[in-house]
Amino acid sequence: MIMSFFDQFLSPSLIGIPLIALAILIPWLTFPTPTNRWLNNRLITLQAWFINRFVYQLMQPINLGGHKWAMLLTALMLFLITINLLGLLPYTFTPTTQLSLNMAFALPLWLTTVLIGMLNQPTIALGHLLPEGTPTPLIPILIIIETISLFIRPLALGVRLTANLTAGHLLMQLIATAAFVLLTIMPTVALLTSMILFLLTILEVAVAMIQAYVFVLLLSLYLQENV
User: Fold this and answer.
1) 220 lies in a domain?
2) How far apart are CA 78 and CA 97, in angstroms?
3) Domain of residue 105, residue span
4) pLDDT, tens digit, 9 for 90 and up, residues 150-195
């Protein structure tokens, strides 16, 4: 049976039971548990430093009303980074390559930020649909354009994360397949291809972390507009 390059994105199943729930829940087990000791180990200390720096950078431009989102956005950031990085290991499944999962994250959080803006400051929230100083003939057109761009935001969040991870996985599989095929035909070319694959893997590790950060950063910007 010939395997397609896109078969790696199929949700794994056992006896007809989808295992995507396990792929989502198991990464939480990799997080170290803090202890009551005065001195923690290096892993917990590094994790605490990373979380503190991330929360500081994320919440600095947001007023105090939005700081209650810090725990939610930090948990989402750690969750996405862990899933993305574990998905780079061999024989693993990356749930964030599924648009449905990414949209399940993006749509409710985006909608919550919009509803918060409409409830707390409706005038300012609606004012974002019409830039200041707009000529009168352009007002209806700009309102329509800004409304469309507002509703496209959650789709852009989900598609950006899905597309970047999917493209990276496909490119790695293509180069790995080429290196394996060329190994017996042209060993020198296969070695160069393997070096390219190694560099691409390092790049994909960076992309996995950056895309998780961008996802949460854009949500924080949407929150900043409405708080």
Assistant:
1) yes
2) 17
3) 1-29+60-226
4) 899 999 999 999 999 998 888 988 898 888 888 888 889 889 999 9
